[in-house]
Amino acid sequence: MTAPNWLGKFDPARKQYLERAMSVSSVGSVLLQTNIRRVVEMLTLRELGAQAVLPRRPGSGDAEYVNRRAAGTTGAEWVADTDSATEETGTYTQVSFGFKTLLTRAQVTRKAVAQGRSYGDLLGTELVGKAEDFAAALDSATFIGDTASNANQIDGLLTLIGNVSSQTIANTTAAGGDDLALAKLDEAIDVVKGSGNRSDLVIFGTHAGMRKLNSALQAQQQFIGDAEIGAGFRVRTYDTIPMVTCTELPDALVWNGTDTRVTAFSGGTTTALVVVNTRYCYYSELTPLTVMPLARSTSQNEQIDMFADLALVFGNTLGGSILGGISTS
C-alpha cells in the first residue's frame, strides 16, 4: 500500500513537529473563542391564557359601573279578555368594579449598559422579561384576586363567580377531589348565560385540569377539535368551546364539596375548570399597558415603569361558572 504523499520519507525532525502539535489539553480554554447565543432564555413555564383571551374595553371614571335587572316573580300571565294586567316591574341594582393599578419597574445601571453593548440592548432585554412578569401577575389576579385580602388588587374569577352559589358545580363532594366527569362539565357549561352560542365561551384550566379532561374524553372515546382564538393562536376545543391553559390558576385549591365552593386558593389538592362568557367577562382599561421612562436623578442607572389601571368586570352574575373538586393526582 502506497503511503500518502504528506507522510513522505520518515524524518526524525518531523517527529518533533508532531510532538509540538496542538492538542485539547495544550490549548485549554485560551485559544478558543466563546460563542454566546444572543437570545436570553426566560426560565419560566407560563401559559398566560386568560389575560390574552379576555376582551379589553376602554374605561373611564373611578370604576366600571354595570346596571343589573332581576326579573319579577310573576313575569307574564294568561288572562281572559275582561281581565286587567297585573302590574309588576323587575328589580334594578347597580354594581361597580373599581380600577386598580398594576405596576412594575425595570432598572439597569449605566455601566452595565455600556459593558453589555456588544452583546445587545440590556434594557430592552429586561423589559421583555418584565412584560412577561407583568402578564403573569395580571393572569394570577384574574383568577385568585381578592379585594378582601388585598384592597389594592382586583377581584378574580374564583372570587366573583364563587359569590354566586348557583354558578359553582361540584365535580364531587369529596374534599380531595375526583376524576373529571364530563356530565358535570356539561352542567357547568349549561349554567352559563348565553351558552347556546358556543363562540362566546371559553374554558380555562391548568395543565393538570386539561390532562383530566383529556383522560375523560379518551375513556369515553370522544374527540376534540381545535379553534383559532385571538392573535391567531390555535387551541383545542371541547364541544367547540376553546380550552385555554393558564398556569396561574392554582392546582392547590381547597374544595368543600358539602357547601359546593372553593374555600381557599392554596393548601389543597384540587383544581378547577372555569367557564366564562366573554360578552359578560372582560377587562375595562382606564390606562392600557404603558411603558414610561422615569426622569433620571442620577447618572448611575436608568429606570422604566410598566403599569396599567384596569378592572376585571363580571357584568352578569350568570356569565361564568366554576367546575370544582377536580383531583390533581
Output the keywords.
329 residues, alpha+beta, phage-related protein like fold, 4-stranded mixed beta sheet, 15 strands, 30% strand, extended
Task: Give a quick rundown of the structure.
This protein is α+β, with helices and mostly antiparallel strands and 329 residues long. The protein has helices at 12-19, 24-27, 49-53, 110-115, 122-144, 157-162, 182-190, 207-219, and strands at residues 56-58, 63-70, 91-98, 100-109, 168-170, 201-205, 226-228, 234-238, 241-245, 254-256, 261-264, 270-277, 281-293, 301-314, 320-327. The protein has one domain: Alpha-Beta Complex (phage-related protein like fold).
Structure, explained:
- The model has no long low-confidence stretch (mean pLDDT 86).
- This protein has a seven-stranded mixed β-sheet.
- The chain has eight helices and 15 strands.
- It is an alpha+beta fold and 329 residues long.
- It has a single domain, classed as phage-related protein like fold, CATH 3.90.1690.
- Helices cover 22% and strands 30% of the residues.
Judged by helices, strands and strand pairing, the structural class is alpha+beta
Shape: extended
**β-strand amount:** 25-35%
CATH class: Alpha Beta
CATH architecture: Alpha-Beta Complex
Number of helices: 8
Instruction: Briefly note the CATH topology name.
Output: phage-related protein like fold
Care to count the β-strands? 15
Beginning-to-end CA distance, first to last residue: 69 Å
Helix content: 10-25%
Oligomer: single chain
What is the N-to-C order of secondary-structure elements (H for helix, E for strand)?
HHHEEEEHHHEHEHEEEEEEEEE
Query: Biggest sheet, open or closed, and with what strands and sense?
Result: 7 strands, mixed
Return the average pLDDT rounded to an integer: 86
How many domain modules? 1
| Spans where pLDDT lies below 50 across 5 or more residues | none
Rg estimate, integer Å: 30 Å
Side by side, the strands of the main sheet go 5-15-12-6-9-8-7
